[in-house]
Amino acid sequence: MRNYYIAGNWKMHKTRAEAADLAAALVARLKDGKHKYLVAPGFTLLETVAPIIKGSNILLGAQNCAPEEQGAHTGETSVLQLKDLGVQVVILGHSERRHVYKEDDALINKKVKLALRQGLDVILCIGELLEEREEGRAEQVCETQTVKGLEGVQADDLSRVTLAYEPVWAIGTGKTATPEDADAIHAYVRGVIRKLYGESAAQRIIIQYGGSVKADNAAQLMAKENIDGALVGGAALKADSFVPIAKFS
Ligand code: 13P
């Protein structure tokens, strides 16, 4: 049985004081929560949030990392620096990284392997653009991103990888994929994992859905067989909107 995994991606929002307030509210209100939880604050907020959620049932995530361990990489943040702050998980291949900052599958794959090698867990995001969906290429795009993102990742390490299907047209737009459409892609991607790593890995891997997840659609999405959690953006910025998603029933 797969555990539900609900993650909040705070993107480029919040000051330290605001982040501390939100983290403290989530610790208090999720302590009786039954699922797996994560928050991913911006880099400058990690040191503030880390001690607040330490010892709670909420994991600390980062939103990106550099493809190299250290060195002359102005403006980048190393996995070593993230680990030093207590980060346990890193989100990689988010659509904003792919499409706004032009990260390709090879670069994302390099980051995935480095993060895993350094002992971090990974949330690998995949998802098609609207025109790719309209051209009937959603499955193919998600397959390519999955296969290339995981190239060279050993079966043993796959247990530390979560996939997040985030159709780009559903992110921050208020348009959610229908539970049926999302589940169809999740099932397809689970099949891709089956081909690469076998049946039991396919059954075990957690596939989150992301894209305008709100309190009023979370339960229907999560009811689908292949949807194992959520990667939440906008609604993760307030405890009042995130807690009902995190405690969906
Ligand atoms: P929204 O929930 O704001 O659509 O963002 C989804 C997302 O990109 C999470 O990573």
Descriptive overview:
There is one protein chain. By secondary structure, the chain is α/β, with parallel strands linked by helices. The chain has helices at 16-30, 46-53, 79-84, 95-100, 105-117, 130-134, 138-149, 155-158, 179-197, 199-204, 215-222, 239-246, and strands spanning 5-9, 36-40, 58-62, 89-92, 121-126, 161-165, 207-210, 229-232. An 8-stranded parallel β-barrel has the order 1-2-3-4-5-6-7-8, surrounded by 7 helices. Strand 3, helix 3 (79-84) and strand 4 (89-92) form a beta-alpha-beta unit. Helix 1 (16-30) runs parallel beside helix 2 (46-53) and helix 7 (138-149) crosses helix 9. It is globular. Residues 9, 94, 166, 171-172, 210-213, 231-235 line the site of 1,3-dihydroxyacetonephosphate.
Give the tags:
binds 1,3-dihydroxyacetonephosphate; TIM Barrel; 249 residues; single chain; 8 strands
Q: Which regions are unreliable across 5 or more consecutive residues at pLDDT < 50?
A: none
* Chemical compounds bound to the protein: 1,3-dihydroxyacetonephosphate
Q: What pattern of helices and strands is seen along the backbone?
A: EHEHEHEHHEHHHEHHEHEH
Computed Rg: 17 Å
CATH architecture: Alpha-Beta Barrel
How many structural domains does the protein architecture include? Answer: 1
The portion of residues forming beta strands comes to 15-25%
Using the coordinates shown, work out and report the CATH topology: TIM Barrel
CATH superfamily: Aldolase class I
Spatial strand sequence of the major β-sheet: 1-2-3-4-5-6-7-8
The helix fraction, in percent, is 40-55%
Q: How many helical stretches?
A: 12
Largest sheet: 8 strands, parallel, barrel
Quick one: CATH class?
Alpha Beta
